[in-house]
Amino acid sequence: MGAVVRFLRVMWTFALIFMMLIALPAMTSAQERGWGETMAARAWITAFLDTSVPRAVPQPLDRLIVKSGLTERTIYQAGPNDINLGEPVVSRDGQRLAFAKVESEDTGLKSYLYMLELATGEFRRLAELHPPGIPLRGAAVRGTQLAWSHDGATLLFFGQARALGASNTWNTVPHELMIIDVATRILTRLVPRGPAPSRQGRAITSQAWAPDNRRIVYAGADEHLIMIDLVTLSETPLGAGTDATWSPDGQWLAARVRKGKNIGDADYVLIAANSPNARELLTDAAPPTHLPSFFSGSRAFVGPAIWSPDSRSLILWRLGRGEREEPYVKASAGTSLERLPDRYRIKSLGGQP
Prior knowledge:
Layout: H1 2-42, E1 46-50, E2 63-68, E3 71-77, E4 82-86, E5 89-90, E6 96-105, E7 108-117, E8 123-129, E9 140-141, E10 145-148, E11 154-159, E12 161-162, E13 175-181, E14 187-193, E15 215-219, E16 224-229, E17 235-240, E18 242-246, E19 252-258, E20 266-272, E21 279-283, H2 293-296, E22 301-307, E23 313-319, E24 325-331, E25 337-339
Parallel strand pairs: 4-9
Antiparallel strand pairs: 1-2, 2-3, 4-6, 5-6, 6-7, 7-8, 8-12, 10-11, 11-13, 13-14, 15-16, 16-17, 18-19, 19-20, 20-21, 22-23, 23-24, 24-25
């Protein structure tokens, strides 16, 4: 009797998977049209790395793609002296990109931070970054943490950087929090730091600024969030969390709160931006699944939750089959959670509400 029950359970599992595979193309197409139409109508912009030789193994990530709605265009193609490109970060108004790039020069390999104007194609070097190790051509520059202010005048940066042409030796502090004036290219250090937070969380995200262009939020080495007023330099502790993103309307912060050692052991919470900074649960650490992990993956959410420009939705990334990251969209004030097509690689998002 027990063997029969086990057999029926296995058959039911495979039948469920088969039905899901049949329904997936129609579901994906409808979701792509819905989200794509919203992005196009609102002129929302995202950007990501892609390859120009999809049949290559491994594929070089040598193109920067800008996406609005269902439309994609290549905004930058790596040249012969480009070794690596970094993940692009879209400004909050959707007008600019910032990204890191490793280049081959006569004196060796150098790493720089760049800005790109989407309307004019103006390409501008902003700062020199810490020298790369031994990079693999075509691999993405990992770990660059950047955030645009809402007025597009300033970049928040976490890492090591120095002014162009500077000859001073690199600081022994591995990570620093600094702001970069885009017009003058002046770097101002805010918080010298020791080791970065654990690999499960980021110190700053692409949405670390408040819409007043005055306050920022970052995660300390103890994985607790801190709000800084850049005018008074006063600090406000916000409690445990990493990967904090600030809603465009200024009302909420979304953050990841680690609960255990495993990568999926984390809740996502909403934190009120104003005192007493009350918290609400956005999604918990163990999303339910009725399929074996072999088919469904760990189903854990990873990385920051990215706000839509109208503050109504958040993009979350879940580990699917083979630990592959899959994008989902969730209402900020509801329980709906919908899978997005893979081409919506939204790690930063800009545009008007």
